[in-house]
């Protein structure tokens, strides 16, 4: 499959070289520092060999191979990724990152390469009464101790509803009803505290499904909330690099390569 993927991306390299021929000169291997947080399977996680792997890692390794870069993976706290991207023209944030206006002010985003929705992880059968058409309303989490991964969409969503002073009506569905939020470095750690420190965890769909697949005492449901788009973030001075990477990303999307990576890291394919 690796050879097939490389062949499919040959056209992308040609497009990228049209943007900047020097970037495709593989004899000169500049470094791309990719910043991620390895607690967000299947997009980034640590395998049995102790290596950081996942959908985003495979995407960036293919980008490096096609464009002629040495890709260095840096596993750091999620909340520090945008800070690192701001320091270096060749620093990239690839961590299942949702495109937001705040991040767009600080960095340049790639084209969207995946779409996700928010899910709630809970003890088995504990939310059955709240499920309507396969979804759970955020208001049904009122009064619960909610765990989130720091600086993710789930974190912002829960925070906004607990303290909605800045909203037009000034009222959030989780405000004033003893709902609490606990932030964690990643969703895996947060979910391990369900039943003790927290009652439920709010996180993106695929990480939620990955966590539940390994724990028969937990289940997950979609939250009735707007979907989000995942992008890669770049330093504001990296405009040319963004164009090159976007060309490769588009080729991956068009040829089903990102879908392949997603299924692979969700357990559906064994290399």
Question: How would you characterize the overall build of this protein?
Answer:
- The structure is a single chain.
- The chain has helices spanning 2-8, 10-19, 55-67, 81-85, 101-106, 153-162, 187-192, 205-213, 239-254, 257-265; strands spanning 31-36, 45-46, 52-53, 70-75, 91-98, 108-109, 114-116, 118-123, 131-132, 135-136, 145-149, 180-184, 200-204, 218-223, 228-234.
- The protein has 271 residues and is an alpha/beta fold.
- The protein has a seven-stranded mixed β-sheet.
- It starts with a helix and ends in a 6-residue tail after the last helix.
- Residues 15-27 have low confidence and may be disordered.
| Amount of helix | 25-40%
Strand content: 15-25%
First CA to last CA: what distance?
8 Å
Total count of helical runs of at least 4 residues: 10
Give the strand tally. Answer: 15
Order of strands side by side in the largest beta sheet? Answer: 9-10-14-8-13-11-12
Q: Overall mean pLDDT score? A: 90
Q: Major beta sheet, specifics?
A: 7 strands, mixed
Q: What is the SS-derived class?
A: alpha/beta
As a whole number of angstroms, the C-alpha radius of gyration is 19 Å
Shape: globular
Poorly predicted regions are 15-27
Give helix and strand order, one letter per element, not per position. HHEEEHEHEHEEEEEEHEHEHEEHH
């Amino acid at each position: 499959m690796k050879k097939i993927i490389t062949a499919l991306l040959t056209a992308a390299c040609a497009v990228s070289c049209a943007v900047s021929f020097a970037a495709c000169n593989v004899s000169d291997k500049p470094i791309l520092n990719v910043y991620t947080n390895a607690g967000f399977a299947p997009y980034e996680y640590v395998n049995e060999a102790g290596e950081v792997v996942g959908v985003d890692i495979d995407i960036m390794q293919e980008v490096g191979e096609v464009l002629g870069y040495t890709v260095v993976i840096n596993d750091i706290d999620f909340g520090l990724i945008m800070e690192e991207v701001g320091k270096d023209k060749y620093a990239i944030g690839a961590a299942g990152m949702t495109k937001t206006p705040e991040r767009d002010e600080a960095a340049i985003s790639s084209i969207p390469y995946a779409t996700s929705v928010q899910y709630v992880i809970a003890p088995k059968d504990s939310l059955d009464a709240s499920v309507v058409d396969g979804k759970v309303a955020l208001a049904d989490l009122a009064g619960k101790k909610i765990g989130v991964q720091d600086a993710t969409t789930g974190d912002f969503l829960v925070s906004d509803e607990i303290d909605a002073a800045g909203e037009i009506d000034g009222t959030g569905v989780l405000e004033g009803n003893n709902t609490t939020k606990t932030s964690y470095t990643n969703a895996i750690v947060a979910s391990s505290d369900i039943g003790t420190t927290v009652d439920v965890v709010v996180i993106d769909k695929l990480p939620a499904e990955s966590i539940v697949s390994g724990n028969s005492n937990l289940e997950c449901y979609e939250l009735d909330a707007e979907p989000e788009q995942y992008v890669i973030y770049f330093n504001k001075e990296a405009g040319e690099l963004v164009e090159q990477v976007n060309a490769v990303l588009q080729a991956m999307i068009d040829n089903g390569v990102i879908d392949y990576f997603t299924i692979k890291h969700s357990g559906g394919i064994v290399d």
